[in-house]
Write a structure and sequence with these properties.
Blueprint lengths: L15 E6 L4 H8 L4 E5 L9 H14 L8 E5 L8 H12 L5 E4 L5 H18 L6 E6 L2 H5 L1 H5 L5 E6 L1 H8 L19 H13 L3 E4 L8 H14 L3 E4 L3 H10 L3 H19 L5 E3 L2 E3 L1 H27 L3
Parallel strand pairs: 1-2, 1-8, 2-3, 3-4, 4-5, 5-6, 6-7, 7-8
Antiparallel strand pairs: 9-10
Helix pairs in contact: 2-3, 3-4, 9-10, 11-12
The structure holds glyoxylic acid and magnesium ion (MG).
């Protein structure tokens, strides 16, 4: 292992990430009551230009009126891109008026590290001026060819950075990929045409301690397609996926929750390696297979995520008198 080590960002459960248009506040309560780990109130592409200002007001009200954290959610606002004239006011109005109720801002279409620096600088000033009690995190969408070309540099652009998301729809547009649907497979391509890009983003994220999140799957009437896309993302190292419709929340939670048998096996691996270490051995056998320190690191990841899921479940159970 290198002596250079990048600490992991703030830990958050992010198996399912529900996108909610800021222009439709009627959906906020449903989102609050949903099983999504993470909700983002959108000011960007789900909101028409004529609705941008009202959406911003709705989002501020939605943050102030609802206690998202108390419901165990991470609450995020997707601001407009820094190439628009909406962005500065998105940050100023939302964070000045509701920064104390906000966990992270999601910055779309990030192309270079300076894009993140700008948002960081604004947040730093507003937090100081308004005495926001906690630091607001930043997450970025990697969804342009430029962003992907600079993904390693973007991953190191701010200490506030927590996660990178793969925005497959804009990415397809940016690289001019022929697509049949948002996040779906193109039958002309032998395999998953997003594999290389997603894998590159996952590696850059993990190298610098960030979470890697897979973006949208547009066809919400195709649960099988969603599940398959989510499983491919999980196989590459993503720890969650967007839900652009409430029906996708349970699917994402299912895929990104390690099944009990996997958690049990991970615990047995750790126990077997503990026993081996006591006897002075680095490797051991379990169920006829060799396991060693690398197996322990993989097992530890599974046990940690299972513990985080359990911790989220407990307050919910307590609330139901269980
Ligand atoms: C998300 O913003 C995407 O473009 O896929
Ligand atoms: Mg996009």
């Amino acid at each position: 292992m290198s002596l250079t080590r990048h600490e992991s960002a703030t830990t958050r459960l992010q198996r399912s990430e529900l996108a909610v248009p800021g222009s439709n506040p009627a959906l906020f309560r449903k989102a609050l009551e949903s099983e999504a780990d993470y909700v983002f109130l959108d000011l960007e592409d789900a909101v028409a230009p004529t609705d941008k200002e009202q959406a911003r007001k709705n989002v501020v009200a939605g943050l102030v009126e609802h206690d998202w954290r108390e419901r165990g959610k991470t609450i995020c606002v997707r601001i407009n891109g820094i190439d628009t004239h909406y962005m500065y006011r998105d940050v100023v109005d939302v964070v000045e008026q509701a920064g104390h109720r906000l966990d992270v801002v999601l910055v779309p279409k990030v192309g270079v590290p300076a894009d993140v620096y700008l948002v960081d600088a604004l947040l730093t000033q507003i937090e100081a001026a308004r005495r926001v009690p906690q630091r607001v995190g930043i997450e970025v969408l990697i969804e342009t060819a430029l962003g992907m070309a600079n993904v390693e540099a973007i991953a190191q652009s701010s200490r506030r950075l927590e996660a990178m998301h793969f925005g497959v729809a804009d990415f397809a547009a940016s690289v001019r990929a022929r697509t049949v649907s948002i996040g779906g497979l193109n039958p002309d391509y032998p395999g998953d045409q997003w594999h290389a890009a997603l894998s590159r983003m996952v590696t850059a994220s993990r190298a610098y301690g960030l979470r890697a999140i897979d973006g949208p799957y547009g066809d919400f009437k195709d649960p099988e397609g969603f599940l398959a896309a989510a499983r491919r993302a999980a196989a590459l190292g993503c720890e969650g996926k967007w839900a652009i419709h409430p029906s996708q929340i349970a699917l994402a939670n299912e895929v990104f929750t390690p099944p009990p048998a996997e958690v049990q096996r991970a615990k047995r691996i750790l126990a077997a390696l503990d026993d081996a270490a006591r006897e002075g051995r680095g490797a051991a056998q379990l169920d006829g297979r060799m396991i060693d320190a690398a197996s322990a690191r993989m097992a530890q990841n599974i046990v940690q995520i299972a513990a985080a899921i359990e911790a989220r479940r407990k307050p919910a159970l307590a609330g139901r008198g269980a």
